[in-house]
Amino acid sequence: MIDREIDETLKRVSQTPHAVEPVLLGSIADSVKATLQPVRCLPPTWILACGLALLCAAVAVAGAARAGFYGVEKMNSLQLMLFFPVLTILIAVAATEFVNAMIPGSLRKLSPSALLATNCAVLVGVLGLLFRDYRTEHFLSAGIICLLTGFLHAIPAGLLCWLMLRRGFAVNSVSAGLVAGTLAGLAGVGVLELHCANFEAAHLLVWHTAVVPVSGAAGAVLAWALRWQGGRIAEASAQRTPMS
Fold first, then answer.
1. In the prediction, which pLDDT does 244 show?
2. Where exactly are the structural domains of the chain?
3. Residue-by-residue DSSP string for the chain
C-alpha cells in the first residue's frame, strides 16, 4: 500500500459518520448541567493588589504595635521619607505580580526570580544609603532574632494573601509560591523596620533583607510540597479506580 492509498483510507474513515445514541447525549448534557453554577467575576487586578498591600501593611503595623515602635521612633526625617515609600512601592509591585500569578493568561512583567532579586537589591541599596553605623556588635545573636521575627510575621501575611486570592488558579504553583513568599517577606521587613532600633548597617543589610529570600524560598518549597502531595494523591486514586 502506497502513501496515497493510506491517505485516502484515513480520509474515508474520518468522513464516516459515527452515530451517537440520543439517550447517551442527553445523559451527558444533564450531568453537565447539574454541576454548572454562576461564577462571580474577580475584581480588577489593581483592587486585588491594593487589598494584598493593605493586608501586608496591617500585619506589619500589628506586629510592631505588639512589640513596640522603637525603630520608627529612632529614625530621622530622611530615613522615614525615603525608606517607607520605597517599601510601599516594592509591596505594590509584588502584590500585582502575585495577582497575575493567580490569574491564568495575565501579563507577567517580572519573573519570580527577578522579582525576588530586585526586591533584595533595592532593599540593600536603600538601607546602605540611609544607615551608616558600621559597628557589628552582637551581629549573630541579634540578627537571628530579627530574621526569625520577620519570618514569623511573614507567615500570617502570606496566609492572608493566599486566602484573599483563593479563587484564583496558579498555572505554575511553585512560581506563585515564590512570589507570595516574596510579598510576605516584605511585610516581615516592614515589621522589623518599625520595631527594630538596631541601626547597624551590617545588621540591616544582612538580617533584615534576608527575610525576603527566606520567605520566598519557604513559599516556593511549600507550593512544591503541596503540588507533589496532590500528585501522589491523584496517582493513588487512579490506581484504585478499576479500569472499564
1. 44
2. 3-36, 45-234
3. --HHHHHHHHHHHHHS-----HHHHHHHHHHHHHH----PPPPPHHHHHHHHHHHHHHHHHHHHHHH--HHHHH--HHHHHHHHHHHHHHHHHHHHHHHHHTSTT---SS-HHHHHHHHHHHHHHHHHHH--B---TTHHHHHHHHHHHHHHHHHHHHHHHHHHTTTS--SSHHHHHHHHHHHHHHHHHHHHHHH----BHHHIIIIIHHHHHHHHHHHHHHHHHHHHHHHHHHHHHHHHSPP-
